[in-house]
Design a protein that fits this description.
Distance between the termini: 27 Å
Number of helices: 9
Helix content: 10-25%
Radius of gyration: 19 Å
Shape: globular
Structural class: alpha/beta
């Protein structure tokens, strides 16, 4: 008889997940199987479930902020052992052969696979992952608080890197990613200004708590001109707003995988060598870099836990803006 596990499954027809029993996956060559202990709930999961990211895997198990312990090794795996705690992120596999992989830009791989999108993810009791794409997690973070590092932290870290040596940084959309980026930026000696949904007092309080110099609504003017603006909210209307807030030579970095259409704006907002760039996925170098930062800097990860079967409630809370910080599914004890 085939062993089964509980998983939340998206069938592609309605933006609601179903709790089902499905076969426990078996690791192939180069893979490990994780007994999942926690999985973060990310806005990218919403983009998949709400149909904004096309062609997900049929009968998909979402989730890509996965923390668990290895309970099975596929053939050829070295350097990892049963019982090791690791994290599995959005990037699940790259081809290693295209021009992007060959030039150190595997985040732009021509034939990638992604957990919780084109490969089953962590809204389940078990998941398989390529061993080479798993990260060791600093011991100072328990499973629940480690999970958001695997995407909110990673994509935020890559987004911040795109800002270069900018000193005055505006963060638009203050949720799971921004509350971690703010702490990293402050630890690097930068000044952070947080722009939240108008009237979101909880997000503003969190921003000040984690080190922002100022917090206000996205419709407010910052108390200082910005060197860089990092956008994490999926609202394209924030792009011209952020461009208007950055100094000459400044940069606006869009950190999300999906954003609503950007409205027309006058060229003068882009002139004077302002730049508008996006962030796509992550590299394993990003993962190793963030884990080094997380080990050196005690990041305060603000989470709201949910049981696996409450994944729909967590997604709805994220969709409606009721969350402050990050939602995490607690699935099994470590």
């Amino acid at each position: 008889m085939t062993a089964t596990m509980q998983a939340m499954v998206f069938d592609g027809n309605v933006p609601v997940l179903a709790l089902r029993r499905v076969p426990i996956p078996v690791p192939s060559a180069g893979q490990v199987r994780l007994r999942v202990s926690a999985c973060g709930v990310c806005r990218t999961d919403l983009h998949v479930i709400d149909g904004e990211l096309l062609h997900p895997k049929p009968q998909l198990v979402p989730g890509h902020e996965i923390v668990g312990r290895i309970d099975a090794l596929g053939p050829g795996v070295t350097g990892l052992a049963i019982g090791d705690r690791v994290g599995a992120p959005w990037l699940a596999h790259t081809c290693g052969q295209c021009r992007f992989c060959a030039s150190g830009r595997e985040n732009l791989c021509d034939a990638p696979l992604f957990h919780g999108y084109t490969r089953d993810g962590g809204y389940a009791e078990y998941v398989v992952a390529d061993a080479d794409y798993c990260f060791a997690i600093p011991d100072t973070y328990d499973d629940e608080h480690a999970a958001p590092l695997l995407c909110a932290g990673l994509i935020g870290y890559r987004t911040l890197r795109k800002a270069g040596d900018a000193r005055r940084i505006g963060l638009y959309g203050f949720g799971a990613a921004a509350h971690l980026v703010a702490q990293i930026a402050v630890a690097q000696g930068r000044t952070v200004y947080a722009f939240t949904r108008p009237g979101d007092r909880a997000a503003r309080a969190l921003a000040i708590e984690v080190g922002a110099d100022w917090a206000g609504g996205s419709d407010d003017r910052a108390p200082s001109i910005l060197d860089a603006a990092l956008i994490f909210a999926p609202d394209g209307a924030l792009v011209p707003t952020a461009l208007a807030a950055v100094d000459k030579g400044g940069v606006v970095v869009c950190g999300g995988i999906h954003m609503s259409d950007i409205p027309a704006f006058p060229y003068r907002q882009l002139w004077e060598e302002r730049r508008l760039v996006s962030v796509a996925n992550l590299t394993r170098e990003d993962g190793r870099g963030l884990m080094q930062v997380a080990n050196a800097t005690a990041l305060r990860v603000h989470t709201t836990p949910y049981p696996l079967e409450a994944a729909n409630a967590a997604l709805d809370d994220l969709r409606s803006g009721r969350l402050t910080g990050a939602a995490v599914l607690r699935i099994a004890p470590a």
